[in-house]
């Protein structure tokens, strides 16, 4: 089997995100650091998941996690709250400091970038149900954002409806893009707003409205860009292998995001590993590409606003920091290391922020 060093020079890697952290040896000259590295040319011949990796995955399956149970002491919770308050002093609330953000954008063109899961949509048990459908949109019950988010699942549908309207209203005023780790067509089916730009697979699958609008400087008839299209065959091969190898693991799910794959247990909010091409492309690159496509590449009077909750959004936050333009806003209820300037606690606060932008 090809060594890890050699395989890392090839086309596709699998990187661990949360659950696996120990180095596992597979014998000979092969080793796995919490995951597996795939050689594009021999992907179909590799043993994608070895027995040690599978055992680790099974041990963390939802049935075992529930049986083990966890207990968080009140002192620990209090300490976490204090640490979060200290963190917020460094990354203040975008709502409490809304006036400062608006002042910074004065005389500039705002361009909105939004993550989806955890930003526009609460994390749900079934990731295929995180939608904003037309059927839901017909309901107009005037519930507060707090009630919508913290009540039962039925009321989440009303939350989605109001969030969808908030995004639609923002897009009427500013060029707006959703930049997600999910596949682009799935995010579009959730939102179904044609006037938006959609960047799926962490920005590796970008498509815009068929015509430019008066809010952009671009006159392109259609925007469509897939910088990793040559990797589709091997991603498909790896997907089929992963489905086969994880079929016996309770609670496991392989999500095919076109240019990336993820193995995760959404019901316990734990992504285990992700497969993606090794090209130098991320959400930060996607942000820069979209700004250029919109005609704002070399403009000093553009004010990009990027809102996201995931580690992958940090690439976009760093780009804004380096450009010294706009603001990055992290969505989180806990302290995290981030380059974002401001913070919001959850999607309800995101929706309030969007509403205030167009008031």
Automatic annotation (TrEMBL):
<dbReference type="GO" id="GO:0004805">
    <property type="term" value="F:trehalose-phosphatase activity"/>
</dbReference>
<dbReference type="InterPro" id="IPR044651">
    <property type="entry name" value="OTSB-like"/>
</dbReference>
<protein>
    <recommendedName>
        <fullName>Trehalose 6-phosphate phosphatase</fullName>
        <ecNumber>3.1.3.12</ecNumber>
    </recommendedName>
</protein>
<keyword id="KW-0378">Hydrolase</keyword>
<dbReference type="InterPro" id="IPR003337">
    <property type="entry name" value="Trehalose_PPase"/>
</dbReference>
<dbReference type="InterPro" id="IPR036412">
    <property type="entry name" value="HAD-like_sf"/>
</dbReference>
<comment type="similarity">
    <text>Belongs to the trehalose phosphatase family.</text>
</comment>
<comment type="pathway">
    <text>Glycan biosynthesis; trehalose biosynthesis.</text>
</comment>
<dbReference type="InterPro" id="IPR023214">
    <property type="entry name" value="HAD_sf"/>
</dbReference>
<dbReference type="GO" id="GO:0005992">
    <property type="term" value="P:trehalose biosynthetic process"/>
</dbReference>
<comment type="function">
    <text>Removes the phosphate from trehalose 6-phosphate to produce free trehalose.</text>
</comment>
<dbReference type="Pfam" id="PF02358">
    <property type="entry name" value="Trehalose_PPase"/>
</dbReference>
């Amino acid at each position: 089997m090809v060594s890890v060093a050699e395989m890392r020079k090839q086309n596709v890697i699998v990187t661990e995100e949360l659950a696996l952290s120990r180095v596992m040896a597979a014998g000979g000259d092969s080793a796995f650091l919490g995951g597996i590295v795939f050689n594009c040319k021999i992907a179909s011949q590799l043993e994608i998941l070895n027995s040690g990796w599978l055992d680790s995955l099974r041990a963390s399956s939802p049935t075992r996690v529930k049986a083990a149970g966890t207990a968080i002491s009140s002192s620990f919770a209090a300490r976490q709250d204090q640490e979060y308050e200290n963190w917020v002093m460094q990354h203040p609330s975008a709502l409490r400091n809304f006036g400062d953000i608006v002042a910074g954008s004065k005389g500039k063109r705002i361009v909105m970038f939004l993550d989806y899961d955890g930003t526009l949509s609460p994390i749900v048990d079934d990731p295929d149900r995180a939608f904003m459908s037309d059927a839901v949109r017909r309901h107009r019950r005037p519930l507060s954002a707090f009630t919508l988010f913290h009540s039962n699942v039925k009321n989440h549908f009303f939350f989605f409806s109001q969030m969808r309207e908030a995004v639609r209203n923002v897009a009427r005023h500013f060029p707006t893009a959703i930049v997600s780790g999910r596949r682009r067509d799935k995010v579009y089916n959730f939102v179904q707003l044609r006037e938006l730009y959609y960047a799926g697979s962490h920005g590796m699958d970008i498509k815009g409205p068929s015509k430019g609008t008066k809010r952009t400087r671009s006159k392109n008839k259609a925007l469509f860009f897939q910088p990793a299209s040559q990797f589709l065959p091997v991603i498909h091969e790896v997907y089929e292998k992963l489905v086969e190898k994880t079929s016996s693991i309770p609670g496991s799910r392989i999500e095919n995001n076109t240019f990336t794959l993820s193995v995760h247990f959404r019901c316990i909010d734990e992504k285990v590993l992700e497969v993606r091409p090794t090209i130098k492309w991320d959400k930060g690159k996607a942000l820069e590409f979209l700004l250029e496509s919109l005609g704002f590449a070399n403009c000093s009077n553009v004010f990009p606003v990027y809102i996201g909750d995931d580690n992958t959004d940090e690439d976009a936050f760093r780009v804004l920091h380096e450009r010294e333009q706009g603001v990055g806003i992290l969505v989180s209820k806990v302290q995290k290391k981030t380059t974002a300037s401001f913070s919001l606690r959850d999607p309800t606060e995101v929706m309030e922020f969007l509403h205030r932008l167009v008031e």
